[in-house]
Design a protein that fits this description.
It is a single chain. The protein is an alpha+beta fold and 130 residues long. Strand 5 and strand 6 form a beta hairpin. The relative contact order is 0.14. The chain has one domain: Glutaredoxin. Helices cover 37% and strands 18% of the residues.
Length: 130
């Protein structure tokens, strides 16, 4: 989240709203946000409604809810999905900013979710989830 905070102006310049969804309850989430002065929205999801909606993996062997990152356009279409293979598997901001630039260039029509999942798991790139 520190990298997202650092580049918050680049996200805002593209009209993006960063929203971080966490498994904590509202009070714990509020304390975390206040203590760290996070510059974007934090949403508590202790009942995992958002996690289930976006098929975010929960792995007790890997310390709980696995990171995931989505670019959702203004019509509600998922334009990019990243499902992490580990807690440190987070895409670089440049990658996400490039997706935002692409979405701005071609606002119509979201990609097929199966294509997103394939690309985000690295199956076509030979590497870890992108």
């Amino acid at each position: 989240m520190a990298a997202l905070a650092r580049d918050r102006h680049a996200f805002r310049a593209r009209g993006a709203q960063v929203v971080v969804v966490g498994p904590e309850g509202p009070d714990e989430m509020r304390r975390f946000w206040t203590d760290r002065q996070m510059p974007f929205v934090g949403l508590a999801d202790p009942t995992h409604v958002a996690a289930e909606r976006y098929a975010q993996e929960v792995s007790l062997l890997k310390l709980g809810r696995m990171p995931a990152l989505f670019v959702i356009d203004r019509s509600g279409q998922v334009r990019y999905a990243h499902y992490a293979s580990s807690m440190s598997d987070i895409p670089e901001n440049d990658e996400v900013l490039a997706v935002l630039d692409d979405v701005a260039q071609a606002p119509g029509g979201a990609e097929d979710p199966d294509d997103l999942r394939e690309r985000s798991t690295g199956d076509d790139a030979g590497g870890p989830p992108a």
